[in-house]
Amino acid sequence: MNAAQGLKVERWTPLSAVATAGGVALLVALAFGPVLFGANALDNLTELYVYVILAAMWNALAGYAGLVSVGQQAFFGLGAYAAVQLTNHGVNVWLALALAGLAAGAISLPTSFFVLWLRGGEFAIGMWVVAEVFHLLVNLDHSVGGVTGTSLIALSSYDPVERRRYTYWLALASMAVLLAAVFVLLRSRLGASMQAIRDDEQAAGSVGVRVLRAKLVVFVLAAIGCGAAGAVWLAGQLTFQPNSYFSVQWTAYMLFMALVGGLGTFEGPIIGAVIFFAIQNQFGEEGVWYLVGLGTAAVVFALLLPRGLWGTVEDRFGIRLLPLGYRVRKLGGGRAPSTSPRVAAESELT
């Protein structure tokens, strides 16, 4: 608190406390989904959870760390591929699916040595090249059928009802753990370092921010998340076809969800995932025109609402649901002015 100016710096507000408690309560309630919902609803929710994971991971990478990637499908595909390989080598299928994200994260470590030195467009194109290399290598693996692909046969031994329930819980648990990881990261000093790198990498380095370490942490986290999403998708679909899992359309989906919901906000990608899920269910069978529509919508949002839906709401109404930063408030009410560009724009110290 700054008594001379009558200012108070706070992280938790009544609204953020209610929103956080509400989010936790919602996750607990969703854990009872197999009891509350039918088969179709469970399948739809599982699909939605995968989209939320993908949107949150791409947002952490691009929205908070400034690492715009068009190759995150590499880790989505590697997560599914790792699940197949672990199962083929005798690992319990559900354990293999749970470990697949970590396997993708492990592969991202040596990958980071090559790509994290790239900046801007070079990083984006470099990641696309990396994704294509992984795709080609998996295509050459005859143990998974090469281009033809294979099936996760081990899941066929489970009763369909039981399999659907386990897949749902795996998706929900993966989403909850990964969202919590992003939340904790953004509240840490490392999270503040990431945002400083996004705003000005050279300036961040000049004041002591360990740029490469911060990039590495978020890069590996995003790889783990995308890998986990790929494994969950495999559990729902049962079949693994490299051309499908390593398709660039997955990154296009991530980009769309983050842009529409609000790039650089925690809640935005979740909102974007819900919107994308609704559009996908309604128009997903339209083929190429569906993809053209998504691209057009993304461009329109980028031009007219560059902060996305939730980012625009935050800027216009000053609503902060989650305590990710610090709010500067006058003791007499209202928000205090600040000389920090980010605080002036968002009324927060991040």
Radius of gyration: 21 Å
Order of helices and strands: EHHHHHHEHHHHEHHHHHEHE
* Coarse shape: globular
Task: Give the strand order of the largest sheet, numbering strands 1, 2, ... along the chain.
Answer: 1-4-5
Q: Give the strand tally.
A: 5
Give me some keywords for this one.
350 residues, 3-stranded antiparallel β-sheet, two-stranded antiparallel sheet, disordered C terminus
Structural topology:
Layout lengths: L6 E4 L3 H17 L2 H4 L2 H26 L8 H16 L4 H23 L4 H20 L10 E2 L8 H28 L1 H11 L1 H6 L4 H27 L1 E2 L1 H4 L3 H13 L5 H17 L4 H17 L3 H10 L8 E5 L10 H6 L1 E2 L1
Antiparallel strand pairs: 1-4, 2-3, 4-5
Helix pairs in contact: 3-7, 3-10, 3-12, 3-13, 4-5, 4-6, 4-10, 5-10, 7-8, 7-10, 8-10, 12-13, 12-14, 12-15, 13-15
Describe what this molecule looks like in 3D.
The chain has a domain at 31-247. The protein has 16 helices and five strands. Helix 4 (73-88) packs across helix 10 (211-237), helix 7 (160-187) packs across helix 8 and helix 12 crosses helix 13 (267-283). 41% of the residues are buried. Mean pLDDT is 86; it is low at 335-350. It is 70% helix and 4% strand. It is globular and about 65 Å long. The protein has 350 residues and is mostly helical. Strands 1-4-5 form a three-stranded antiparallel beta sheet. A two-stranded antiparallel ribbon has the order 2-3.
Summarize the structure.
The protein has 350 residues and is mainly alpha-helical. The chain has helices spanning 14-30, 33-36, 39-64, 73-88, 93-115, 120-139, 160-187, 189-199, 201-206, 211-237, 242-245, 249-261, 267-283, 288-304, 308-317, 341-346; strands spanning 7-10, 150-151, 239-240, 326-330, 348-349. It has a domain at 31-247.
